[in-house]
Design goal:
Oligomer: single chain
Number of strands: 4
CATH superfamily of one domain: Fumarate reductase/succinate dehydrogenase, transmembrane subunit
Distance between the termini: 77 Å
Structural class: alpha+beta
CATH architecture of one domain: Up-down Bundle
Helix content: 55-70%
Order of helices and strands: HHHHEEHEHHEHHH
Strand order of the largest sheet: 1-2-4-3
Largest sheet: 4 strands, antiparallel
Strand content: 5-15%
Amino acid sequence: MQTVSAPKISSTFIWRRVHSLMGFWLVLYLCVHLLTNSQAALWFGSDGSGFVRLVNALESLPYLHVVEVLLIGIPLAIHMVWGVYRALTARMNVHSSGGIKPSLKYERNRAYSLQRLSSWILLFGIIGHVLQMRFLDMPKRAPRDYQEQSMVKISFDEGLYALTQRLGVTLYNKKEIGELQVAPKPLLQTPAINRPETFDPALVTPIDQNQRAEEERKWIQTLSSYSLRSNEVVAVAPSPGKAILLMVRNTFKSPLMAILYTIFLLAATFHAFNGFWTFLIAWGAILSYRSQRSMIPVCLLAAGALSLLGLAAIWGSYLL
């Protein structure tokens, strides 16, 4: 009896399916990310309170950096590496070439070309976004009076007078930071403690004051680590959510940054939901021509709605 072996599944097919799955996961993440960021719009809600609550909840997660790497970093890296390969090998034929090669100006062919173009925008946009928001401008933290505080460098504007009062945020300019460095709280002399067997109430106050003074020194050291220009201040917030809200607002003070982030956002939402449409086909969720056609406006509407959420954060956190 002759046996017939099953055909070997090609590595290209496997990588395409992995790329598709990672893309679907990133679409879900993008929805959550933009829903959170939309609440940074200061006219949308009470001084960004929804944004502050959500960011504080995320920042309080245990092993946050591990979670970010596993659930965001690795899927994003897999999707980007295979996406760059596909973009480099893509042959876009939507433009006229004078008869040298076919020119197919169909709707889905245009979408294919825009998908490849948006992938390049996202490649550089994501790298810049992560470098800025997670490394260069990310708030620093330091405890003071046993309460962790978050610090962020921002450029000053008149709107901060009222906003920082409402948020419970304190601003420090270069002169004030210099004065704090000159006169830090002194440490007290306390008796040596050598494995005490009984509680001594007399030691509570000096030990507590010394711990607070040491925290104060480290807090001032963190505060003075910022290099400030004449128009810049350090905002000290009681929670990371409020500091990140001010960081987002500060970023979109610049019309150039607002425009660049708008392009980045529109590329991301189109890429996400055009990719979601192909994901549904690749995994057999929509097989008939009618179902595929009917799903296109649904994906476009979803991309439009998600774009509005992102635009609310970009243009509503400061400029509006």
